[in-house]
Amino acid sequence: LRKACLAAEQARLAREKAVVDEAVALSLTREKFYLEQPEGEYETSVVLRELKKNDMKRQRALKAMHPAERQRAKVLDVFESFDHDGSGSIDVEELKLLLEELAIVMSETELEFLMNDLDSDGSGSIDFTEFYDWFSNPGNKPGGAVIRAMTLYLEAKNFMEARLGTKRKKQAHDAVLLKATQLTARQAQAAFRAAEPPRFECAVCHHSFALYRDYRTHFLAHPEKLRSVVEANEATGDKGEYD
């Protein structure tokens, strides 16, 4: 039964991904055209100004931080630079893109092994806590060479982008695209799941699970998600399945 549930969820996820990817591809085409119009250029300029303001605030905040907090904030910058869809986690496709960007060649088996090693809660993606543990304490862990290459690459990339003044412009452009595609992806996912729901779904991050054991492990590894669900249920008067 366990194997059947896992196989069924894997097949359902593949169908869901195809639907979401198609919707996002159409949304990207529309948004890229929009960004070439005066309205889109204006929206990008507004986001750019906001990014520059936030950057100044962040630099002041970093100076006031404890060294450990400052290190965590810097690792968050690295994490967000590879979290291309802004989901708050790095999935296997984003990990593959990260490795390609670093010119690191890995077989599908090696990539799967690395992903499984980093994804400690078995959610199917790497959240910031998992990434921070990996990035900050590589030691002899799998992927230690990836971290060293990533550090050197980002130092060179940030230096060149700062010299050319392209970093913030690209971030503003990507932020506008991301806002539109995230909404499209979530709407497409919700519509698909209304017709083909997963057995279990996190109400906070929308990860799906075939087995209750994995669903429960997900919450135990991230108690803040359980608190969010409980608080939402209390606000609506719904006791939910956690009481």
Task: Give an overview of the whole structure.
This protein is mostly helical and 243 residues long. 74% of the residues lie in helices and 4% in strands. The chain is built from 10 helices and 4 strands. The chain has helices at residues 2-35, 38-64, 67-82, 92-101, 108-118, 128-136, 144-164, 167-195, 212-221, 223-236; strands spanning 89-91, 125-127, 200-201, 208-209. A hairpin with a 6-residue loop joins strand 3 (200-201) and strand 4. The model is unreliable at 238-243 (pLDDT under 50).
Features:
243 residues, mainly alpha, two-stranded antiparallel sheet, 74% helix, globular
In a few lines, what is going on in this structure?
It contains ten helices and four strands. With 243 residues, the protein is mainly alpha-helical. A hairpin with a 6-residue loop joins strand 3 (200-201) and strand 4.
Give the topology, please.
Layout: H1 2-35, H2 38-64, H3 67-82, E1 89-91, H4 92-101, H5 108-118, E2 125-127, H6 128-136, H7 144-164, H8 167-195, E3 200-201, E4 208-209, H9 212-221, H10 223-236
Antiparallel strand pairs: 1-2, 3-4
Helix pairs in contact: 1-8, 2-8, 3-6
Backbone shape: globular
Radius of gyration based on Cα positions: 20 Å
The helix/strand order is HHHEHHEHHHEEHH
Counting DSSP H or I runs of 4 or more residues, the number of helices is 10
Q: What is the helix content? A: over 70%
Q: Report the uncertain regions.
A: 238-243
Helical/strand content category:
mainly alpha
Instruction: Note the gap between the termini.
Output: 28 Å
How much of the sequence lies in strands comes to under 5%
Strand order of the largest sheet: 1-2
**Oligomeric form of this entry?**
single chain
Summarize the biggest pleated sheet.
2 strands, antiparallel
- What value does the average pLDDT take? 79
The number of E-state strands comes to 4
